[in-house]
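Input chain follows. Return structure tokens only.
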Amino acid sequence: MRVTTDPTDPRFGRPQPCECARYEEPDERRARLLRYSRLGPFQRLTFATLIDAGRSNDERLQRSYREAVRVVRRFAEAPEGWLVLVGPHGSGKTHLAAAVASDAIEHGRAALFLGVADLLDELRAGYDDDAEVGYDAQLEQVKTAPLLILDDLDAYAQTAWAREKFFQIVSYRFNAALPTVFTAVKPPTEIDERLSSRLVDPAMSQVVELAHGDAAPRYVHIGAMNRERLARFTFDDFTPSGIGLKGAQRTSLEAAYRDALKWARDPEGWLVLTGGTGCGKTHLAAAIANVRLDDGQRVAFATVPDLLDELRATYAPDAPRRYDQLFKSLLEAEVLILDDLGAQKSSPWAEEKLYQLLNHRHVARALTVVTTNKRLGDLEPRIASRLADTEVSLLRDITAPDYRTLKP
């Protein structure tokens, strides 16, 4: 509750607990603070579950990350001013930010954790007549939160309206000197000048740059092809001659093996493998992934139906990662493998998302491997035309039958 409207009073802008809150049981208080915090699935991200040295094997990066953790812990002990955590996806920004909120709750203090994109969506929804919480009430809650954590600052500039509302929140908290934590991929200096001038103000804000380099995972999978399973699929374990194959079927499999091995060793553009179920496409794609990982590149392996399910799931309010983060990781992957294209349940939304992803990588000539059991003519025309582009793609059709049905 508020106890004063006098801007000269040190308690101005800082909510104070009511009498009932002061005498509640510890478990009740923690449960109430958790509900207020909006941490949801992020409540598992605490200082206790943090790897203090980060995930890099580089000692220099480990020292840098330990120093970042030390600074964040010190802020959590006595939140004052602003803390800006900057680093690439996967560098641990969100974990550290959520840990600040969790630490506050454990010490009986209120903290509000919000993704910036979610915050702006909720403010828009507050205009609806049937909204559970109106726009004014939501805006006031965020502006005056005792401790506010805003995750993924990069999502604030979706529209002119979003930029203005977000600046309104930031400006209020800056003027009231309310403790706030921001996470961002871009450095503050690359953000709108009105915001950056506040984010880097030395009298208010401390900017912490998290480790780059190996901070991001080298292998990302969507679907069942985890790192352990991937390791089982190598070129040495592949039989190019198939099982008792002769003629054109054997020739097509041997040619696909040669092309895949050559591409794995010296990748350029796209490799597109077509053929029926069980002919060896996924094995070759996974073998390529292993070679590129051994060569130090970052690889993303996505089974297309699982990928689309994952993208849909990111729209859920309690999703552990957001759509823009997941989609960007695929757009920017050094090597992207899309397995089983065409097996997904087709819809305009699914076709559009796949087109956006493939078109981006086609224009960029980004290293990409695609497997499909469909004929190109049966795929969405815009996607098919990019797969068939001989200036970018090497297309190899495998006519071998399903090896699972064959006997030695």
